[in-house]
Amino acid sequence: MLFQSMQQKKPSQLTFLYTITYSRMKAQEFLLLIMQKKPALRQGFTDSEFVYIRELCDALAIKYTQSDFYVDIADTSCTFSNKGLRISQEKKTKTSLRMYYFSFDPQIVELLKLAEEKNAHNFVGQLLGYPPCCIEYFTKHFSKDNTNLEFPIAIWELTITQRHRDYCILSHFPCSKNCISSLELARQYFDTIFADNELWAKELRSELQNAILSNSSK
Ligand SMILES: [Zn+2]
Description:
Layout: H1 2-7, H2 13-21, H3 24-34, E1 41-45, H4 47-60, E2 63-72, E3 85-87, E4 97-103, H5 106-117, H6 121-127, H7 132-141, H8 180-196, H9 198-216
Antiparallel strand pairs: 1-4, 2-3, 2-4
């Protein structure tokens, strides 16, 4: 009996979070928030999706608030940029996303909402725990006409090219091909994911490694 219970694996929080978020990247972010590896999250949800997220937050005492605006967005991961066009509540459709801000600290949640409303990218980045070098890179280069700050990266932990396929570790644009601060964060995040769900982590790693390989052989 004892042997049997020792063999039993602990349930994966990621697997559970995926059944609520329907997104690998969003599930990972929630795990990292719960494990206190991230101070706060910013994610987009439709009104109907958020019903389940609200239950999760209430159960775990995660504080949240939402933007007053909605966005119609091409990038469904919606964690990377303000690519989408902001629209008013009256103009929203069923697929319009609202931005939500999550943290265990209610003050951070309110500050994030305010900072994003004012387009204070610098402050938003700080509140989300992004490295200062990458925040500086983002604020310098991001504009309406330049919303994708992605460039080829050969380190799998840092690559963000597969985010449209829902495989990505980071939630920000790294400032360089070998940004040390981003790499430290990504390794911490990956270790946390690995500790929760080995299969999930291995799939993530192989998808990212394959993406780099196929890119370098082009
Ligand atoms: Zn950086």
